[in-house]
Specification:
The structure is a homodimer. Helices cover 45% and strands 16% of the residues of chain A. Chain A is α/β, with parallel strands linked by helices. In chain A, helix 8 runs parallel beside helix 10 (194-209) and helix 11 crosses helix 12. Chain A binds a DNA duplex through residues 1, 3-5, 13-17, 19-20, 23, 25-29, 32, 47-48, 50-57, 114.
Chain lengths: 334, 334
DNA sequence: CTGAAAGCGCTAACAG
DNA sequence: CTGTTAGCGCTTTCAG
């Protein structure tokens, strides 16, 4: 193993100079810096992570807490995760993966051992049990998602309430008067998962404001046909649907087709989901994008600022961006 | 922060005794061990990860390399990952998540810095570019998947060839004479992904051996209807289908239904996929289980043995387990 | 702008 | 069975 003293000898400088040349924490003459960098390259030097963490009190590792609870759309969750890993690497950090098997004291453990410098927490509930803990820990953290009482925490996410509203308003503008929200599976609401609840809020608020009749349907995967039938039966005037349930999007559109409803001729469909998904449905879906990559990147950037002692906003709400595709159109009066 | 000297003082012993009491690396009298454990509990002591790694030359962290390349079924991949994390925790290890953005030298970096003790590598290609690197690294590693030349590497996976054979033989036993394999998306085969290739091998071998006519169809997500039509058109005698493509399973069964084919009356369908998926299809599917949890756990266990210097078998092939469900039946001669 | 030297907290010889 | 002690490789004062 090549160590800092090897590099120092090779470059004809002291170890501390090597350290400073690499970290930039004090001015180094251009010439020595060159020599150091060359020595580093020639020897293939890589600082030992443990030694660095011990002496520098910084591990350069972030923890990503991903419960992966049931009802969540795993590919969507993983988009966030990949974005977090990618962005973290740009800041010379690695990412430790924590699932929730250990419960809350997995967090305590990680904090106490100094294994990580900071936490990114996903799958936030409105009244998340981890919040008091996160507040008490002296590790900086960022939540992907907004709990009911985000005071003293740094949160980032798509503005799901606004996203729900945007979908409804788009339908209202097209003349629709009766809309339904097909949401995540019931257990997601039972857990009071923040993003799901906020979509419902936005959806309902906007529908009321626009004087539309509206209903909300949490929905299991595989139940596309059933919900489709139920909607037609219970809400015969229905002409607009908002889907906030990735795996159900294509099957639901198919089910409507089988029941004799054309999208968008008879029924306009919008969704909140990754653009890629919206585009891949057989009838491309007008949707509010779920900007996983941006959210993941933002979370890391916020954390880096906090680690540098820079102040950051408590709340980063990304404005919804809607893309019109083939699945929505004017209401045609029969 | 509470450190080992604090615990030692509290327990009235030396730091090394605390260390040994905790690691069990040398005999400690029952009495002192008790005192140490009590002191640990009272003080809430947790060894500093960096210090431990530096002095002990072991970080207690494993790296999980998950490229998440396109065409893979993310939920299935994540089952492995969760199992790895869970099992690693049982051995007091944490898991670092590496995606493949950095390419191969992400592995080198990790190895050089001593951040991790060992590697678990997923998404293995038959002629995987990472193999030479893995062999040259002096970090122990385990592959989830079998490359073409696994010499000198430790590999664990479901025996996908046997799984393909099992599906065909099951259909043969039921009297079917013409079968088709609906496989992963083309890009998965293009990359020569090991598990996909091996299923094809097993499928073809068994079909030939049983004197059945057979075809193989790599298949994009969303193309269920197209393949279904193509199969009926090009292989009119077809009565048995093997599906090795998770997201396509339900849509494909649906498509057959829409084309007027009843499962299993007209067409028997088997799959290689997680049991949970097979059970959730509207017609529960006879399947060979994808034992993600077991494979992930095995991978970690193998790694732990290697870290202990215990010899392990190069190859751990899990025998396929088939569960008959509602989707297969005797061929009915028309 | 650079060096010398004192630890960071823990483990593992070495010594008893 | 237990204690003493010498580092592990790096960062960061302190000194120049």
């Amino acid at each position: 193993m090549v160590k800092i003293t090897d590099v120092a000898r090779r470059a004809g400088v002291s170890p501390s100079t090597v350290s400073y040349a690499l970290s930039g924490k004090r001015p180094i003459s251009e010439e020595t810096r060159q020599r150091v960098e060359e020595a580093v390259r020639e020897l293939g030097y890589r600082p030992h992570a443990g030694a660095r963490a011990l002496a520098g009190r910084r591990s350069n590792v972030l923890a990503l807490v991903v419960p992966l609870r049931s009802g969540l759309h795993v590919p969507t969750v993983m988009r966030f995760a990949v974005s977090v890993v990618t962005t973290a690497r740009r800041y010379d950090h690695d990412v430790l993966l924590l699932t929730q098997e250990e419960g809350e004291d997995g967090l305590t453990r990680i904090a106490d051992t100094g294994l990580v410098d900071a936490l990114i927490v996903m799958d936030v509930a409105l009244d998340d049990l981890r919040l008091p803990l996160l507040r008490s820990l002296d590790l900086p953290s960022v939540l992907i998602g907004f709990p009911a009482a985000p005071e003293g925490l740094t949160c980032v996410d798509l503005d799901f309430k606004a996203a729900g509203e945007a979908c409804v308003e788009h339908l209202a503008r097209l003349g629709h008067r009766s809309v339904a929200l097909v949401g995540s599976p019931p257990e997601v609401y039972m857990r009071r998962t923040a993003f799901a609840q906020r979509v419902v809020q936005g959806f309902t608020t906007a529908a009321d404001r626009c004087g539309m009749s509206s209903t909300v349907h949490p929905c299991e995967p595989g139940a596309a046909r059933e919900v489709a039938e139920q909607l037609l039966r219970e809400q015969p005037a229905l002409t607009g649907v908002v889907v906030h349930n990735e795996p159900l999007l294509q099957p639901l559109v198919d089910a409507f087709g089988q029941l004799g409803l054309r999208v968008p001729a008879d029924l306009s469909v919008t969704a909140i989901c990754p653009d890629e998904l919206a585009e891949s449905v057989h009838v491309p879906i007008t949707s509010v994008a779920l900007p996983s990559t941006e959210v993941g990147a933002r979370a890391v950037e916020l954390l880096m600022k906090k680690l540098n002692g820079t102040a950051v906003p408590d709340s980063t709400l990304l404005a919804p961006k809607m893309t019109e595709r083939a699945s929505t159109g004017r209401r045609t009066v029969a």
